[in-house]
Amino acid sequence: MASMQHFSIAAVAEQSADFRRVLWTGEHAQLVIMTVPPGGEIGAETHEHNDQILTFVSGTGEADVAGQTKAVAPGDLVADDAEESGQDQPPAG
User: Fold this and answer.
1) In 3-state terms, what secondary structure has residue 63?
2) Are 58 and 74 in contact (CB under 8 A)?
3) Are 35 and 19 in contact (CB under 8 A)?
4) Taking the model in full, what pTM does it have?
């Protein structure tokens, strides 16, 4: 029987000195926190067959997802459907 994992995302993120830290990996999903320094960015992320949910716990910035840019602040959540963003399409040719 699998055990339940519980995280206080804001507390874990604020205490983490790591740029990227995997908190949990399941069969179909993974929970990762990223601590992006002021003025920093994570660069282009490509997950060909996986949707993404981005949750912002502190600071402000911009999320560039699927050709759109949105301002983000604490408490915001951005969802990216891999199929809709074109990431789940097979390569041409």
Assistant:
1) strand
2) yes
3) yes
4) 0.70
Longest dimension (CA), the chain: 46
Per-residue pLDDT reduced to its tens digit, 31-50: 888 888 888 888 776 667 77
Written as six digits, the tokens of 48 are 């060909």
CA dihedral (84, 60, 13, 6) positive or negative = negative
In Å, what is the CA distance from 81 to each residue of 10, 15, 34, 41, 64? Answer: 24, 29, 20, 21, 13
Q: How far is CA 23 from the centre of its chain?
A: 12
In angstroms, the CA 72 to CA 85 distance is 19
Among 22, 1, 15, smallest CA distance to 58 is for 15
